Amino acid sequence: MTDSPVRRLVILAEGRFGPHDGKTAMGVIRYGQDPVVAVIDSTNTGRNVREWLGDRPRFDIPIVASLADALALGSSRGAPTALLIGIAPTGGKLPAAWRRAILDSIGAGLDILSGLHTFIGDDPQFAAAARAAGVEIVDYRRPPSREETAVGRAHGPGKHVILTVGTDCAIGKMSVALELRRAASEAGLASVFVPTGQTGMMIDGWGVAVDRVVSDFSNGTCEWLVEQAESKGDWIIVEGQGSLDHPAYSAVTLSLIHGSTPQAMVMVHKPGLPEHDWDHVPDRTFPLQPLNDFIRLHEQMAGVVAPSKVVAVALNTSLYADEADARRVIAETAAETGLPVDDPVRFGPQRLWGAIQAGVEALDPTIARR
Q: What is the pLDDT of residues 110-121, one digit of tens each?
């Protein structure tokens, strides 16, 4: 993680706080370094983030109806210094009804942090207000000035690159990558998380939202992100995006596979989910691929550029409220795939990381990119 200023956040998630549209809010609260003073969502006023994320002190965050309510809290976390837009809607557009809250936040002296495709800093009204108030607007999805195609870079000696891939969007590829980085660090390994989306960048303070990069440069961007990560550590865990068979978001997945050229992949899967997240076209459905077929597809698609193996499956068992049911599904998936399987968010990442580390270390050295 880079050294970035510590901010005290108010998260704007009006009408959308939850694990799907509010996944940016959830991710920043769960894994971010900046304290969160409050969440704004008038449809959940009076509730607490602990109801979603568990009874830990860092999740003791009130949900309030407005910015004025958040500013009036007098929180023990201190007065807020930034408003973070906490949603990841289809298309990444700013809801028109949120303009007033953003302008009011700027007027209150808060920086604005956004991961939307709509660049807040390019809006003349927002930009003028920010200049007058002396606050900063950060658009995390703004692409980098560095524009390079991939050059077929080989990984450095002793560097292990692991990519999280998934059977669908918004099922936890970032969370799995962060949990595995945590377990690797706890095991004494020099491990690096590579943020490739706006939420990961908010959490770790560096990276690129690769879904905003010009397609000719997307593989190259993934390549130089991994190169940067290799200068920081030996175990490189790249955050996955999209899904290889998703009709809307497959391109970013393929660029990560062919750009980062991982020696190993971890397949993230949400059992009980029958079809792809395709809510913006409600009359079209796209069933998920059979898991073993999908694993082979990833290895084949990776192999046309550089050999790679799926070494484990990380499940998101959130559709199974009962722990016994979740553990049953984990065991069934292990029997089905013949791979190590666990839910590293729900049950901790240590056991799965141990199996992943062993699996990566057992790969033939020739599997590294030639």
A: 999 999 999 999
* CATH code at position 63: 3.40.50.720
Write down the pLDDT at residue 219.
98
Q: What are 234's two structure tokens?
A: 């030996």
- The pLDDT of residue 18 is 83
As for how many domains the chain has, the answer is: 2
Please say which residue of 106, 139, 172 terminates a domain: 139
Q: Residue 370 pLDDT > 90, yes or no?
A: no
Assess whether 299 and 328 both reside in one domain. yes
